[in-house]
Amino acid sequence: MAYLGQAAVKEREYEYGKTAQTGLTALPEIEGGRRPQAKKAPYFKYFVMAAGVFATLICILTSYSTVTELTVKSDNMRTELAQLESDANALNAKKEERFNLTYVEQAATQQLGMVKMDKDQVTYVATSNPEKITVAAEEQNVSELVASIVKSFNAVVEYLN
User: Fold this and answer.
1) Which backbone phi and psi does 139 adopt, to 5 degrees?
2) pTM across the whole model
3) Residue 149 needs a FRET pair 20 to 30 A away by CA distance; which of 44, 64, 103, 129 works?
4) CA distance 59 to 53
5) For the chain, which residues make up each domain, given as ranges?
6) Could you read off the pLDDT of 32-66 as tens digits, one per residue?
7) Strand, coil or helix: what is 132?
8) Between vectors from CA 149 to CA 145 and to CA 115, what angle results, nearest 5°?
9) Are 20 and 14 in contact (CB under 8 A)?
10) How far is 18 from 25, CA to CA, in rounded Å?
11) Concatenated DSSP letters of 43-108
Protein backbone atom coordinates (compact mmCIF):
# COMPACT_ATOMS: atom_id res chain seq x y z
CA MET A 1 0.00 0.00 0.00
CA ALA A 2 1.16 3.36 -0.76
CA TYR A 3 1.51 6.14 1.69
CA LEU A 4 -1.81 7.42 2.77
CA GLY A 5 -2.30 10.63 4.48
CA GLN A 6 -3.04 11.03 8.20
CA ALA A 7 -6.66 11.79 7.46
CA ALA A 8 -7.04 8.66 5.41
CA VAL A 9 -5.52 6.53 8.19
CA LYS A 10 -7.83 8.02 10.78
CA GLU A 11 -10.80 7.48 8.52
CA ARG A 12 -9.85 3.85 8.13
CA GLU A 13 -9.42 3.39 11.84
CA TYR A 14 -12.82 4.95 12.37
CA GLU A 15 -14.38 2.56 9.85
CA TYR A 16 -12.63 -0.45 11.39
CA GLY A 17 -13.71 0.63 14.85
CA LYS A 18 -17.25 1.07 13.62
CA THR A 19 -17.26 -2.40 12.12
CA ALA A 20 -15.85 -3.86 15.29
CA GLN A 21 -18.71 -2.39 17.27
CA THR A 22 -21.46 -3.61 14.90
CA GLY A 23 -19.84 -6.98 14.20
CA LEU A 24 -19.77 -6.39 10.48
CA THR A 25 -16.64 -6.52 8.47
CA ALA A 26 -16.10 -4.30 5.53
CA LEU A 27 -15.30 -5.75 2.18
CA PRO A 28 -11.86 -4.94 0.92
CA GLU A 29 -11.73 -2.22 -1.65
CA ILE A 30 -10.88 -3.22 -5.16
CA GLU A 31 -9.06 -1.00 -7.55
CA GLY A 32 -11.47 0.89 -9.74
CA GLY A 33 -13.94 1.31 -6.86
CA ARG A 34 -16.16 -1.67 -7.80
CA ARG A 35 -17.11 -4.37 -5.43
CA PRO A 36 -17.56 -7.93 -6.73
CA GLN A 37 -21.21 -8.69 -7.46
CA ALA A 38 -22.85 -11.74 -5.97
CA LYS A 39 -24.07 -14.34 -8.45
CA LYS A 40 -27.74 -13.94 -9.25
CA ALA A 41 -29.99 -16.90 -8.71
CA PRO A 42 -31.16 -18.44 -12.04
CA TYR A 43 -34.78 -17.29 -11.61
CA PHE A 44 -35.54 -17.85 -15.29
CA LYS A 45 -34.54 -21.51 -15.01
CA TYR A 46 -36.67 -21.92 -11.90
CA PHE A 47 -39.58 -20.24 -13.64
CA VAL A 48 -39.30 -22.51 -16.68
CA MET A 49 -39.10 -25.62 -14.48
CA ALA A 50 -42.11 -24.50 -12.41
CA ALA A 51 -44.07 -23.74 -15.60
CA GLY A 52 -43.20 -27.19 -16.98
CA VAL A 53 -44.34 -28.90 -13.77
CA PHE A 54 -47.54 -26.82 -13.75
CA ALA A 55 -48.26 -27.66 -17.42
CA THR A 56 -47.66 -31.36 -16.72
CA LEU A 57 -50.09 -31.25 -13.78
CA ILE A 58 -52.70 -29.52 -15.94
CA CYS A 59 -52.30 -32.21 -18.63
CA ILE A 60 -52.62 -35.01 -16.07
CA LEU A 61 -55.73 -33.47 -14.51
CA THR A 62 -57.28 -32.90 -17.92
CA SER A 63 -56.65 -36.50 -18.95
CA TYR A 64 -58.13 -37.77 -15.68
CA SER A 65 -61.25 -35.68 -16.21
CA THR A 66 -61.53 -36.95 -19.80
CA VAL A 67 -61.18 -40.55 -18.62
CA THR A 68 -63.84 -39.98 -15.97
CA GLU A 69 -66.20 -38.38 -18.48
CA LEU A 70 -65.75 -41.25 -20.95
CA THR A 71 -66.28 -43.80 -18.19
CA VAL A 72 -69.57 -42.16 -17.25
CA LYS A 73 -70.68 -42.12 -20.90
CA SER A 74 -69.71 -45.77 -21.26
CA ASP A 75 -71.71 -46.73 -18.18
CA ASN A 76 -74.74 -44.79 -19.46
CA MET A 77 -74.50 -46.52 -22.85
CA ARG A 78 -74.21 -49.94 -21.20
CA THR A 79 -77.32 -49.19 -19.15
CA GLU A 80 -79.16 -48.03 -22.27
CA LEU A 81 -78.01 -51.15 -24.16
CA ALA A 82 -79.32 -53.40 -21.40
CA GLN A 83 -82.66 -51.56 -21.47
CA LEU A 84 -82.90 -51.85 -25.26
CA GLU A 85 -82.03 -55.56 -25.16
CA SER A 86 -84.79 -56.19 -22.62
CA ASP A 87 -87.22 -54.20 -24.81
CA ALA A 88 -86.15 -56.26 -27.84
CA ASN A 89 -86.73 -59.51 -25.93
CA ALA A 90 -90.18 -58.32 -24.85
CA LEU A 91 -91.07 -57.36 -28.43
CA ASN A 92 -89.82 -60.73 -29.76
CA ALA A 93 -91.98 -62.54 -27.22
CA LYS A 94 -94.97 -60.40 -28.21
CA LYS A 95 -94.28 -61.11 -31.91
CA GLU A 96 -94.10 -64.86 -31.24
CA GLU A 97 -97.40 -64.64 -29.41
CA ARG A 98 -99.03 -62.68 -32.25
CA PHE A 99 -97.89 -65.09 -34.95
CA ASN A 100 -98.79 -68.19 -32.96
CA LEU A 101 -101.63 -69.91 -34.84
CA THR A 102 -103.57 -70.79 -31.70
CA TYR A 103 -103.56 -67.12 -30.69
CA VAL A 104 -104.72 -66.09 -34.17
CA GLU A 105 -107.48 -68.68 -34.09
CA GLN A 106 -108.65 -67.59 -30.64
CA ALA A 107 -108.64 -63.93 -31.64
CA ALA A 108 -110.60 -64.71 -34.81
CA THR A 109 -113.24 -66.80 -33.04
CA GLN A 110 -113.60 -64.83 -29.79
CA GLN A 111 -113.01 -61.21 -30.80
CA LEU A 112 -114.16 -61.20 -34.43
CA GLY A 113 -116.86 -63.88 -34.20
CA MET A 114 -115.49 -65.94 -37.08
CA VAL A 115 -116.10 -69.67 -37.48
CA LYS A 116 -114.17 -72.36 -39.32
CA MET A 117 -115.34 -73.34 -42.78
CA ASP A 118 -117.10 -76.63 -43.31
CA LYS A 119 -115.69 -79.10 -45.77
CA ASP A 120 -118.54 -78.54 -48.18
CA GLN A 121 -117.73 -74.82 -48.31
CA VAL A 122 -114.23 -75.49 -49.69
CA THR A 123 -113.79 -75.16 -53.46
CA TYR A 124 -110.65 -76.45 -55.14
CA VAL A 125 -109.25 -74.82 -58.24
CA ALA A 126 -107.18 -76.77 -60.78
CA THR A 127 -104.35 -74.75 -62.28
CA SER A 128 -102.64 -76.99 -64.82
CA ASN A 129 -102.58 -74.11 -67.30
CA PRO A 130 -101.66 -70.87 -65.47
CA GLU A 131 -103.54 -68.73 -67.98
CA LYS A 132 -106.76 -70.66 -67.64
CA ILE A 133 -108.48 -71.37 -64.35
CA THR A 134 -111.30 -73.87 -64.10
CA VAL A 135 -113.32 -74.66 -61.04
CA ALA A 136 -113.19 -78.40 -60.33
CA ALA A 137 -116.61 -78.67 -58.83
CA GLU A 138 -119.39 -76.16 -58.78
CA GLU A 139 -122.20 -76.66 -56.35
CA GLN A 140 -123.27 -80.28 -56.56
CA ASN A 141 -126.59 -81.67 -55.57
CA VAL A 142 -126.84 -84.59 -53.19
CA SER A 143 -127.92 -86.93 -56.00
CA GLU A 144 -124.89 -86.05 -58.09
CA LEU A 145 -122.69 -86.62 -55.04
CA VAL A 146 -124.17 -90.08 -54.49
CA ALA A 147 -123.82 -90.93 -58.19
CA SER A 148 -120.14 -90.00 -58.15
CA ILE A 149 -119.54 -92.09 -55.02
CA VAL A 150 -121.24 -95.13 -56.65
CA LYS A 151 -119.20 -94.63 -59.81
CA SER A 152 -115.95 -94.52 -57.78
CA PHE A 153 -117.01 -97.64 -55.86
CA ASN A 154 -117.72 -99.51 -59.12
CA ALA A 155 -114.30 -98.56 -60.44
CA VAL A 156 -112.68 -100.04 -57.31
CA VAL A 157 -114.72 -103.27 -57.59
CA GLU A 158 -113.76 -103.70 -61.27
CA TYR A 159 -110.12 -103.23 -60.39
CA LEU A 160 -110.28 -105.91 -57.70
CA ASN A 161 -111.93 -108.45 -60.06
Assistant:
1) -60, 125
2) 0.38
3) 129
4) 10
5) 44-116
6) 656 666 677 678 889 999 999 999 999 999 999 99
7) strand
8) 50
9) no
10) 9
11) HHHHHHHHHHHHHHHHHHHHHHHHHHHHHHHHHHHHHHHHHHHHHHHHHHHHHHHHH-HHHHHHII
